[in-house]
Amino acid sequence: MKEELGPTSAAGQAIDLPLDSHLHTNLSPDSDVPIDVYAAQAVERRIAELAITDHVDFLPDAPAYAFATFAERERVVREAAERWADQGVAIRFGVEITYDQRHEPEIREHLARHAYDYVIGSVHAYEDSPYHASRVAAWTAGKTVADIVAPYFDEVLRAIRSGLFDTIGHLDFVKRYLVPHVTPAQIAAAPELYEPLLQALVETGTALEVNTSGLRQAAGETYPAQPIVERYRVLGGTRVSAGSDAHRAEAFTMGLEAGYRVISAAGMSELAFRRGGSGVAVKLPQRFIPSERPAGAPT
User: Fold this and answer.
1) Helices and strands in the chain: count of H runs, count of E runs
2) pTM of the predicted model, to two decimals?
3) pLDDT tens for residues 117-132?
């Protein structure tokens, strides 16, 4: 889906950060950014580590279905990692897989055959979705917020329960599709809708992504927003990641500083990032380390 840069773009590109774990290159159908463009910006902006997470879809009509082969994507990323290592930028080979329950067997088989450093599982809205721009207005009319978000949240829950992914990307990305028919404030007024998702993340050990693309889109807030991240922490969640979800060069690390602060405010001081099997955590810079934990949060 084409990226939007809206009026909230003032969040700006970040500097001096250890990681942007969600980036799309021209090996995704909705991006035109060569990988070296991100790497050069990383050197300039002192971003130590990048995860290239180009789209892979398994629904035949979806944009990233068979768009680029695993071999091509791996070659491009691994070669870039070699080119940029001496300049202080670590580049990891990741993927963002669109979860669709109908295609879970194919996703499972793909991940069994192919080794990635980092795997994001996300739910998107394509042509047959009730959230598609062509039908969302009529479909939402007269429904409660709970009924409106249920198809999306139910699919996210299945993605979590599948155990296939290191991280669940943009947990409530549905906010993007619903504006202006349902506002983020209306969804925030029903935080109980998130409880099954957050509990499943905790139970499965799957990381929650704080995705900052919402700050430059109509939602105007991260996916998910700070209160949801805080609730995840209260429930015992400790595994979080942060990514700009950039599809355009000017969106690289955009809003990521704010995303780190959301994580910090929830009482967490490190990012979960697998790095090809390694469980080593990425520490937040000292300026983000929280001085106080939210009430009721585990220590």
Assistant:
1) 10, 10
2) 0.92
3) 999 999 999 888 999 9
